[in-house]
Amino acid sequence: MAGGKQPPKRGVEEEEIKLIPDRKEYKGGDTAQVLVQAPFFPAEATMTLRRLGIVKTERFRLDGPAYTMGIPIDGAWTPNVHVQVDLVGAEDRNTGSADGSSAALRAGAPQSGRDVRAPGKAACVCQWRVESFDSAIRSQIDRHRDAA
Asked: What pLDDT, on the 0 to 100 scale, is given for residue 96?
C-alpha cells in the first residue's frame, strides 16, 4: 500500500563513513589529522593506506560517533595516497519482531516494533594529494623570491 509502513531492514546494508582530513594536500613529514564520523558505534575499524599496493594497515576501536586518526605522511607516496576505512559493529534497528531475534524475522513472527542491535558495516575511500619534497622546496623558493 502506498504510503504504508516500510518493512524492517533484514539484511546488512553497507553504510557510509565520513572521512574529513584537516587539509587537501600534504607533503612528506606532515601528519594528517583525519576525523572519522561513524554511522554507528561501538565498532571495530581498519584503516588501509594504498599506494601501488598496501602501504600500511591499522586497527582501532570507535567507542563514540567520532574518532581522530593521526597519519604520518611519507614523501614516497607522491603524487597521491588512497585511504580506506572499514567499520564493523552493531547498529540500532527496528526489527518488527516480537522477540527481536533474526530467527523470528525469518519465521515471519508478529511485529512489535522493538529496537535491537543488529550487525552493521560501513566503508569510505578517499584520495589525498602528496606533494613531493622537490616541489615543496621549489614552491618555498618561489614564494621567497616573490616576497623579495
From this structure: 46
